[in-house]
Amino acid sequence: AQSVTQLGSHVSVSEGALVLLRCNYSSSVPPYLFWYVQYPNQGLQLLLKYTSAATLVKGINGFEAEFKKSETSFHLTKPSAHMSDAAEYFCAVSETRAGGTSYGKLTFGQGTILTVHP
Amino acid sequence: SQTIHQWPATLVQPVGSPLSLECTVEGTSNPNLYWYRQAAGRGLQLLFYSVGIGQISSEVPQNLSASRPQDRQFILSSKKLLLSDSGFYLCAWSVRGYRTDTQYFGPGTRLTVL
What we know:
The structure holds 2 protein chains of 2 kinds.
Chain A: E1 3-7, E2 10-14, E3 19-26, E4 33-38, E5 44-50, E6 56-58, E7 64-68, E8 73-78, E9 87-96, E10 102-108, E11 112-117
Chain B: E1 3-7, E2 10-13, E3 19-26, E4 32-38, E5 44-52, E6 55-58, E7 65-70, E8 73-78, E9 87-94, E10 104-105, E11 109-113
Parallel strand pairs in B: 2-11
Antiparallel strand pairs in B: 1-3, 3-8, 4-5, 4-9, 5-6, 7-8, 9-10, 9-11
């Protein structure tokens, strides 16, 4: 079974500083990986996804993530934080069968709350 | 384009009362549909998913049930609410097919059971 670990339930940065949110996954088959963002009292919005093409994935709002198979990681970064980036971020891995087909289900990490200070 | 609706947006219910939350998707056919719950500080918990009309899989035993009476309609129900049912309920959909795992979420329903 797949699993996701997000290191750090809370991350705090200053406006303009680098944002780094960590995600490690476990999967016995090549994974599909996702980052979602959730603003207070809203649903989840897809930031970006890795689907076995380029290992560096660019998403919305200036975020990007790099798939590193050797480290089983998919960390999310943004060069310069903005106040509007304050939200909760979720990493997720798709569940797959051994043959590569999908159950259509995602396993989510516990989330990381990002706080941005002026 | 596809859109997903949930209602109501907020709900306050007494313990022991029934529940019905509705989710509808527009702009796509034969989607996979999902119900999640977020309790405070506990991440997302998958409650039910459906790959077709009348086809419901339950992920955890609980006080809730789900139904899919139409292709793009997903309903979450309870006969008698418990305090522990409080939380933020999210509906999501995905395209059915090989490795099409991206899920798109609705705006959510905040349920408070008193």
